[in-house]
Structures are given as C-alpha cells and as structure tokens.
Request: fold
Amino acid sequence: MVWRDKESVMTSEFQRRTVSGWVVLPTLIAAFVALACVFYWFAYAASQVPHRTVPVAEIWGMVVCGLVLVVFVILACGFFTLQPNEATVLLLFGSYKGTVRESGFHWANPFYHKIKLSLRTRNFNTEKLKVNDLRGNPTDIAAVVVWRVHNTAQATFDIQDYSNYVHIQSEAALRHLASRYPYDTNVDNELSLRGSMDEVSRALQEELQERLGKAGVIVEEARLSHLAYAAEIAGAMLRRQQAEAIIAARKRIVEGAVGMVEMALEKLEANKTVLLDDERKAAMVSNLLVVLCGEQAAQPVVNAGTLYS
Reply:
C-alpha cells in the first residue's frame, strides 16, 4: 500500500462586516438603565407587600432582571477596537467566520473568539550565517528582510507560528542562495555575491516569497546586509583577490598596449613617415611594450646617431 499525501489546501481570507460599537453601546446603556428601573420597581413593590405574604411575582421579576443583566454582560463582551493596519480573525466554536480589517470601534457576536494580527510592515536582520559559496569557500553572510502579513487566514490557520516561520525560512533561503553564487569572480557575465548585489537581492526576495507565500506573507524587500569571507580564510582570500586583481589589471594593460602598438605601426605605414624592416619593427614593438607595460615610468634615451648605428 502506497501512502500519498494530499495537497494541503490554503485557507482563503474573506471579509466580515460588523456593527459599529458606537451604535450598540448607547443601546446597551439605555437598556441597562431601563433594566435598573424595572428592578427597582420590583424591589419597591416587594417591600410594600405585607410581611406574612410572599411577594412571588416581584421575586420572579427581580430574578428575570438578574438573568437579563447577565445577557447584557455577555453582549458587552462583543466590543473590540482595531487600530490602523490591524486585523481581527473571528472564530465561532472552531469555525472561521471572517476577518475584520476596518479600524475603529466594533461590535460582533460575543461568542466569537478574536485573534488580533498586525498588518504593519516589519523587518529584521538575520543572524550572521557561515555558509559555503558556490566554490566551497566559507563565507559569513546576513540579510535584512522586510515583510508584512497579507492573508490573515493563512497566517493564522496554515502555519503554527508565522513569525517564527518567517525567521527560520529566511535563514534557510539565505543559506541556499549563498550556495548558488561564488563570493567573487573574474569571469565575464558570471554573477557573484559581492559583484552582483542587486541581482542576488532580487533572487533572494523571489525565493523568500515562494517560501513564505503559504504563510500569507508578502516580502517587500530582501537585501544582503553583511558579506565577508570567514575569519579562518580571510587573509588567504585577500591575497588571492589581490593576485587576481593584479593579473586582471596586467591583462587589460597588455591588451591596451598591443592595440596601441598596432595602431602606431599602421599609422607609420599609412602615412609613410618612416619605412621599417621586420627587424626594426620587432625592436620598436619590444620598446613600446616595455614602455607601456612597465610598472615605473620609462627613462627616454635619445639616439644621436642614425637609425642603423
């Protein structure tokens, strides 16, 4: 027998309209005042009955007033308030009855169980994680995540603790992202953690949204806040970066020098300024490359003789 997990069904949020608390509150106050007057009337009537006679009707009247007072107290439990960017999820005996998003003073069924959620934008900085990049280099990395609750039903019913879920999944996504890119690269068109910050941050946000969407959360921004080689290899990687930078600079200098020499020879031949044989061209190329590729400024030597002396 093969066990197959059924695909989990996401809870859909829907709006629940409530009665304004400013309408129900005066009504309850007026009813309470009227009830107090009726209770006082029954109590006064009971006091006027002769001592040997039991005021049955008046006693029952006061009992009923007491029961009605209990009902008023229960109805008063239906009041609740919402600030801007807050929502309340309503449950009735375990059944989802909707979400109230409108700020203000509300009244709803007093038997509703109310779960208040914040819809405000929140952000946090992940812990510095030690992960291996694409080339296996240990790297310290951290990120800032900006998020907010969008679907209150999913955040309440589909996830045990959505805030903790956001933090754990953010760290997992950051670890996975760091393993997809090298820390740094000299290869053209290759993305890296250090050199392609915008692209990497965009990829992190997309992965976070995919992970956190089931919690009813929208990721508004995700960006790396810390990036460095781990302490045990920082010195070696710094020397490696310096060597790679020197090699890349030398390569660019040589390419530029060769282009300048070719351009000089082409100009001399095109303008027929001077005619050089192959041996003199080789000597000129050698001298120009030494001048253009040297680390220090060349000291010119004036040749007072002929070209072939």
In short: The chain is about 45% helix and 20% strand.
